[in-house]
């Protein structure tokens, strides 16, 4: 067969079935666009993180610490471990966001960073590794005195510009001394780029850092950082560090693997969601391609029989039809890929701003091409599988009976159908009347539609299948978004439900008043104020303490919050809250130590060992997911003396009346009253911690909403158009029997409405039940979540979305049936 014949056939077929071809092409193109976009975004995110890591050289292992430490012990440890390639102690000074303001001299605009709830750490540039990088390239900036480089995240969040003046209030109070800086640029931070990081770093000169440290009002902190000559030894190295009691450990320990995972996850969630949406659309496209091919073979069976009769081999005939869908798939993949090339820079703009401009390599081209090739192969493979029916076409049956099977098979089917009909008639004569007996004339059309739907249920299964997939595609991203945005999500962050979170840690004031006791005094002052405040309801506090637990390879650091958990709202995936002598572990810690509720874990503090029964396992995505809870009286002198930090949770007395605004006002008031504490509205804490994730999910939810509604309406119209074409003779018979066009159209509308509603209902139920397990299996292992329970907005996902999908299917049906009423009925029986 020459290419000219194929092209002529394709051209004529497109003219004759333009609507069907366009509908299929659009669905395929959307699938290709999402698949290529997901692959390209994932490659760009990975490339951005890799490039930033290659230049910034973040540590392979780091230990954050607040309080005094023995530098000699660190030097001895480094000398004993030859696998250390380089190490350093980075000194930092942290200030609350309310103490940092900015001013734009050109316009007089002012503002502060009080809306940021993470720690603001001022540092100097390192000499060997862990560099802060300029946003305009890979340069390692070194500010002069009076200059500051601001985190790029604050450039986006607060609109800070180069040339603005940054003011830092020292000495703790609003009337204290203020240090002035000029913003000369912005920096990327490989270690603290993600919003899931609890801190961010500002870059100043050595002299300015000394002025900030000596000015008071800040919180000193260090990071002990190590780079190893062989990262395969990282696990053993971390074990050795944590088992050395002389080394500083009052803070979170983090590995390069955790840093990379958090960065890639927060940026790559868009890619994962897009590829999931693409798979859903591919399923819709393949279902429709299968249906269209079968309908085409039935409609053109006489032409196929004629080609078989003149001697054309089945491979040639199949190739003729396969070329049609192969060309459509090729055009769709090419168009989808081109659209993805324009969309990906917009989708990755924030990623490349926060991390780095990803280099263009052969993988940049191979990733989308491979994704599109897989999609093209799936479509062509399904088409080729369906077109095998051409081999079974009998020439006589095709030309005489218009059937895809032989005359013998046709006659056999007819005889079996006749026998089944006779048995049904016999049963009705003896047992029950006809299905149409007693039906009033006004309901006869509806009854016929129902009987027709039952008889042709295999063909009509396509519609509920498509709307089932569309419902899942629509609801899952929205459910995940509302879950992450809900105030109740704090139970996934190792915290009880509350309105305020107060952190009291070591500060510069501790040096003057006796170490960590001053943190306990600040906590006690806060409790006294909170308990006498009529706006505050329940208040509970927990002491952050450092224990060690015995694991398979020895003693490991274990950070524990000690307090009263008897009435805690913290949710447990397994077991229950700890009682006296018990401990509850986060999911990742339970996996780390290989224990389940009921097992015993050996812990020690200051050399004193004790056996603690594991009471339960809870979900936590903070502190790397490695936390623990123990029952204890925080007012005991021993606990108060050993506590390295305090966490206080407070609920508003009339939360329903006061709302979130009241929590913000109270948080700012207490934050100003007690400089040693960081007071945060819990809703804002969750929002800022998960900002990158929720921003990505919000964009995905909007995209999938448009695609799911559009694809569902398009496919419903396509299916009904093909169904009407197949049922012309049946509608002609109904018309000859006296049914009006309005009644015939009503039958079609009823069948469409029933199948659409069934698909939407099943899809909604699946998304609300099995959808949780599906999403949890993808996100859970990387976030420390064992069981993800959606916190949906029922008005949106269980009312608005189903109505939108049913409305989309109904609108497509109405458009098609309106054309049906203008059809020439005389042609239906020809």
Automatic annotation (TrEMBL):
InterPro entries: ABC3_permease_C, Membrane_comp_ABC_pdt. This is FtsX-like permease family protein. The chain crosses the membrane at residues 20-42, 264-287, 325-345, 365-387, 460-481, 696-720, 752-775, 795-816. Residues 275-387, 704-823 form the ABC3 transporter permease C-terminal domain. Its main location: membrane. It is a multi-pass membrane protein. It comes from the Bacteria. Keywords: Cell membrane, Membrane, Transmembrane, Transmembrane helix. It is found in: Cell membrane. Pfam families: FtsX (PF02687).
